[in-house]
């Protein structure tokens, strides 16, 4: 699953550490999400979307052919 997390975070001037603290995860988790090494749980995806005031679909891009 692709995502726009890094793009959105940087547009808003938020550091990985700040986002991690707000979401109660590690900075490494944020880095792994941004680099596509890790897909979030549905709960984490909702937390991220709520944090940015966006829908999950605006941040995370699901493509069936990647499954």
CATH architecture descriptor text: Orthogonal Bundle
- Main sheet properties: 2 strands, antiparallel
The CATH top-level class label: Mainly Alpha
* Tally of structural domains: 1
Tell me the helix content. 55-70%
Low-confidence spans: none
The CATH superfamily is lambda repressor-like DNA-binding domains
* Beta-strand content: 5-15%
The helix-strand sequence is EHHHHHE
Distance between the termini: 9 Å
CATH fold naming: 434 Repressor (Amino-terminal Domain)
Count of DSSP H/I helices: 5
Q: What is the tally of beta strands?
A: 2
The dominant shape is globular
Strand order of the largest sheet: 1-2
Structural class: mainly alpha
Mean pLDDT across every amino acid position: 94
What is the alpha-carbon Rg in Å?
A: 11 Å
Q: What does it look like?
A:
The chain is mainly alpha-helical. It has one domain: lambda repressor-like DNA-binding domains (434 Repressor (Amino-terminal Domain), Orthogonal Bundle), CATH 1.10.260.40. It has helices at residues 5-11, 16-23, 27-34, 42-52, 56-59; strands at residues 2-3, 60-61. Helix 2 crosses helix 3 (27-34). It starts with a strand and ends in a 6-residue tail after the last strand. The relative contact order is 0.23. This is Transcriptional regulator. It comes from Cohnella endophytica. Keywords: DNA-binding. It holds the Pfam family HTH_3.
What's the short version?
This protein is mainly α and 67 residues long. Helices cover 57% and strands 6% of the residues.
Task: Supply the key terms.
67 residues; mainly alpha; 434 Repressor (Amino-terminal Domain); two-stranded antiparallel sheet; 5 helices; 2 strands; 57% helix; 6% strand; Cro/C1-type_HTH; DNA-binding; Transcriptional regulator
């Amino acid at each position: 699953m692709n995502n726009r997390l890094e793009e959105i975070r940087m547009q808003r001037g938020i550091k990985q550490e700040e986002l991690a603290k707000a979401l109660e995860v590690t900075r490494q988790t944020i880095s792994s999400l941004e680099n596509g090494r890790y897909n979030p749980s549905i709960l984490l995806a909702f937390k991220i979307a709520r944090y940015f005031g966006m829908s999950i679909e605006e941040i995370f891009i699901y493509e069936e052919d990647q499954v």
